[in-house]
Amino acid sequence: MSNRTDPDKTLDDERLAHFLERIDRGDKIEADDWMPDDYRNQLIKLISMHGVSEIMGALPEKEWVPKAPTLRRKLAIMAKVQDEMGHGQLLLRVVEDLLAPLGKSREDLLQDLFSGRLKFHNVFHMEAPTWADAGVIAWLVDGAAIITQTMSLETSYAPYARALQRICAEEKFHAQHGESIVLELAEGTPAQRQMLQDAVTRWWPSLLMFFGPPEGGTVSSNQLLNMRYKIRSQTNEELRQAFFNKYVNRIYHLGLTLPDDTIRYDEAEDVWHYRQPDWDRFVQIVRGNGPCSAQRLRLRKTSYEEAQWVRDAMLAAPRAEYVAGGSL
């Protein structure tokens, strides 16, 4: 039996040790730095899901652009939809640099989305049947996103952190837009208040699922690996508790209720107790079996296919007469 050391394995071990030293002292990793395969893979999974979720997340609100109750509301929600699409494109550009060494492209990523291999966030599989849903999405869903994205500003991967600086700044305006809608409905007619209450009740399970399953539960996650690599700094449950701290009392202050009679804050433990959502249902939703999963994917695929001519035109080689400085 040979005792010789594999030189490639030794080199990889040395690289990994150096990489972890950089992570531990707070260095930021750039796209062209050496990184271990599982670090790259976790980044691709996280950022691609975030990117396509920004795009898919614009679709429930897009439905309300032509139906918004006033011109001012129409302009505001249209601007928000444009922002979300822009966030998605920015993040897809970040993940392209991670995909390139693997011989993959943005096109591969989107085909993975259309085939169901690439998942998007659970909340964007859900229906938004009323104007109150548009308000709750912007106030509470975007509020949850801000909590997660603010944590990720300190991520060890520098290109993602830089993209998040712009995204977080714009998401704060989105949350204010949603809060404005919610306050208007809360101060409105009994029918408007009931519409708002129904929307909060409808979205509460999805909001609990937003941050992902707790560590050690029935649904597996990679949150501890991501924390070791300092891709993230808090667990799913810590983020969920931060969401409760920020929003539960605000919801109650508006005279609204939550569909959970067990939720309560324990001062001694400094923790919110609540009823766990159905995590098996969560898995089914992100696998594409949510109320609007097929509809949203079909819309996104149709939009992508119909815009193919634009991509072809942008990527086409310049015509000879323009290269030569001539004219038609």
From TrEMBL:
GO terms for molecular function: phenylacetyl-CoA 1,2-epoxidase activity. InterPro entries: Aromatic_CoA_ox/epox, Ferritin-like, Ferritin-like_SF, PaaA, PaaA_PaaC. Its EC number is 1.14.13.149. It comes from the Bacteria. The keyword Membrane does not apply. Keywords: Oxidoreductase. The keyword Oxidoreductase applies. Pfam families: PaaA_PaaC. This is 1,2-phenylacetyl-CoA epoxidase subunit A.
